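cron nightly-structures :: item 1 of 1
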Amino acid sequence: MRDTDGGERLPLPDQELLTTLVARAIAEGGADVEELMSRVRVVAFRYCRARLATYAGGSELADDVAQEICIAVLRGLPTYQERGRPFVAWVYSIGAFKVADAQRRLHRDRSLSVAQLPEAPDESPTPEESAITSSDVRLAARLMESLPERLREVLVMRIAIGISVEQTALTLGMTTGAVRVAQHRAVKRLRTVAADLEEAEPETSGPPAAVSGPLLGAVPEP
């Protein structure tokens, strides 16, 4: 199976195997680094897509930021030390910084663009905006952005990145019980939002595909 960026679906292994892979990559390099980075690439792209898909050109932007994350991980790998936190937590911290930086740039560029708008602006959507507006990925990301920060991050970890409850807890500094509760609350809230969307658009025969399928349908059991 392939991910949407065209790469193989290579989820991170469990914590013990991941620790071994990271140690081999640092000590021996070569093929071990390539295997590790192929997995980091998938995680980075999934995270960036979940956080940036609502923006115009979000898919391309997610790909660019994911590449920045991979470069930062590769550069930092020789000096990486676990220090009681899992490797995925380190990757996540880099990703969160890169995504936040990209969002700041987008908002700054948007402010500059608004300041330079002509008196009669062309309000028609760009091809990129049209494509994303019609995308289930954009809708799913919009729903995710409606969640409080902590609930959203839990779902990003569990759905977009696909890591276990235990790894999510270690990454976010939570207990496994708190992760399960947060996931339950997040899914319940998203279902409420999805129902509101369905009521707002009664002509549709059901909730949007991103709501009933790729998003809520993909949520693993907490």
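cron nightly-structures :: done
The first helix runs from residue 15 to 28.
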